[in-house]
Amino acid sequence: MDAALTERFERFSVGLTGGIGSGKTVVAQRFAQHGVTVIDTDRIAHVLTAAGGAAMPQITRAFGHTYLTAGGALDRAKMREYIFSNLHARRQLEAILHPLIRIECIRAASAARSAYALFVVPLLVETGYWKNRVDRVLVVDCSTENQIRRVIQRDGFKSDQVQAMIAQQAEPGSAPCTSG
Predict the structure, then answer these.
(1) Which of 101, 140, 139, 134 lies closest to 119, judged by CA?
(2) For residue 40, what are the β-bridge partners?
(3) How confident is the model over 153-178, as pLDDT tens digits?
(4) Which of 25, 79, 20, 15 lies closest to 49, judged by CA?
(5) How far apart are CA 142 and CA 160, in angstroms?
(6) Which of 3, 17, 43, 137 could form a disulfide with 124 if both were Cys (CB 3.0 to 4.6 A apart)?
């Protein structure tokens, strides 16, 4: 693995995390309004899995055309349903996406001009990679009922789908404490 993928970032960095629908985006927007460079791993993943995205050839080889839209992007809804019922498939997708996301994060952090960088990482605790690469962790939390309501309103998912996603994520109190 590339040494750059295993080292800490050069500038002070904060990892922003929290469960789906917890309010990470709102918090990140507030930081951005104050001039902080915000690097959002979900946005990076969307770019990588768009039609022509860097991850699409590997995803197509691994999963076939079944999980692509007519336009050649990842069919996120179909893939989400599949990986939540198939741990091997989820790990396979993560093995494709996570290294590419890390590379893009390193590029974005290198280009950052603010005093520090804020990395928005929904799976910060779950992946393990971020624990030793950020100087601080900021956890956004709210009640499960609020999470479910927000995600249903935002994405149109069913309650049981949201509950399954929440169950896949770490508990808020399990975020690692790091020191700089």
Answers:
(1) 134
(2) 120
(3) 988 888 888 888 888 776 554 444 33
(4) 79
(5) 18
(6) 17
Beta strand segments in the chain, E:
13-18, 37-40, 117-120, 136-140
Separation of alpha carbons 159 and 116, rounded Å: 37
Strands of the sheet containing 13-18, edge to edge, are 37-40, 117-120, 13-18, 136-140
> Contact 170/15 with Cβ under 8 angstroms?
no
CA distance 160 to 177: 31
Architecture of the 3-174 domain: 3-Layer(aba) Sandwich (3.40)
Q: Under 8 Å CB-to-CB from 50, ≥6 apart: which residues?
A: 56, 73, 74
User: pTM to 2 decimals?
Assistant: 0.82
- The per-residue pLDDT for range 24-52, each reduced to its tens digit, is 999 999 999 999 999 999 999 999 999 99
Q: What is the separation, in whole angstroms, between the first and last Cα of the chain?
A: 25
Query: In the chain, where are the structural domains located?
Result: 3-174
**For residues 6 and 133, what is the distance between their CA atoms, to the nearest angstrom?**
8
Mean pLDDT confidence for 125-141:
87
Secondary structure (3-state) at 72: coil
